[in-house]
Amino acid sequence: QPKTTPLVDDYLISDTVLGLGINGKVVECTHKRTKQKYALKVLLDNEKARREVDLHWRVSGCKHIVNITDVYENTYSGRKCLLVVMECMAGGELFQRIQDKADSAFTEREAAQIMHEICVAIHYLHSRDIAHRDLKPENLLYTTNQPNAILKLTDFGFAKETLSNDTLQTPCYTPYYVAPEVLGPEKYDKSCDIWSLGVVMYIIMCGFPPFYSFNGLAISPGMKKRIRTGQYDFPDPEWTNVSQAAKDLIKGMLNVDPSKRLRIEEVMRNKWIAQYNAVPQTPLCTGRMLKEGEETWPEVQEEMTRSLATMRVDYDQM
Ligand SMILES: O=C(Nc1cc(-c2cc3c([nH]2)[C@]2(CCCNC2)CNC3=O)ccn1)c1cccc(C(F)(F)F)c1
């Protein structure tokens, strides 16, 4: 139900670029009547863009997912475009905010509260049979710069429905003797998101990623092997004071076998997440480590982007 009236009748488009998504550019815009600021994502109208908008619109009501205000279908110089107007997340990205508060101690309890917010978003998606498949630091944004800002997930450019056979093809009844796997392989798309949750949690706890290539190359063969074989650890001194509960949760999310990896329901039931307000207020070195690693942060982002691209391909072929 996108609007077909010209977006420019209702909004002023500024030339402030907020970022580039998989399928399109994001710019700032202002509602003419209310003077309210919004983020506008410009997508070329095609099947991929339609899927992104449809899935994002379906979950836009979740408190921890960037809300869509409006969608317009307009034609510019003969090209059909989808214009997605979203609430403006003026607080910027998750790790920028943790780094900016480097002086005042960032504690394990604050980390647990942040993880709880991200898990609420992922649980909202997975319970509606939608996998995000591109959960990474630059897609986690804050509403404002204020202390009470809310963290939200954005960019549904790789999102997809995970309805497997037992809900679609097979008739509404299934003979009681049919084994579950016969109804079609449980799709592993959701487990991409759990792996991402594990990587994001690891970085929140210490300020550097669990996997990286040592020789500064893009994904080195060694790094790929280390990801597949789950070779990472919790090095001292950064991890010395972190609770065993947090480390065990990360292990459950970074399990190399997607079928053995925790599901989001299990993550939400985990004590460290469910009772995040009872997590010890141990000071973490995340802010300082993020600051120290600031120049190599773009490489960390690129490596996560590549790891996700590889995983999406691998799991689609399973
Ligand atoms: O990025 C800002 N606001 C924002 C941004 C988005 C947004 C959507 C998407 C993205 N951002 C990215 C940008 C590149 C990194 N991945 C995410 C690509 N894909 C998207 O779908 C949505 C809503 N508000 C921002 C940051 C600081 C200040 C302000 C402003 F001053 F405008 F309030 C806005």
Describe, in plain words, how this protein is organized in 3D.
The chain is of the alpha+beta class. Helix content is 37%, strand content 19%. It has eleven helices and twelve strands. The strands form four sheets. A five-stranded antiparallel beta sheet has the order 1-2-3-5-4. Helix 5 runs antiparallel to helix 7. The longest helix has 21 residues. The two termini are 35 Å apart. The site of ligand I85 has 20 residues, from strand 1, strand 2 and strand 3.
Radius of gyration, taken over Cα atoms and rounded to an integer in Å: 21 Å
- Say which molecules are bound, naming each kind only once: the ligand O=C(Nc1cc(-c2cc3c([nH]2)[C@]2(CCCNC2)CNC3=O)ccn1)c1cccc(C(F)(F)F)c1
Our count of helices gives 11
Shape: globular
Helix amount: 25-40%
Main sheet characteristics: 5 strands, antiparallel
Q: Report strand order across the widest sheet.
A: 1-2-3-5-4
Structural class designation: alpha+beta
Number of strands: 12
Percent of residues in beta strands?
15-25%
**Mean of pLDDT:** 90
- The H/E string reads HEEEHEEEHEHEEEEHHHHHEHH
Stretches with pLDDT under 50, minimum 5 residues: none
Distance between the termini: 35 Å
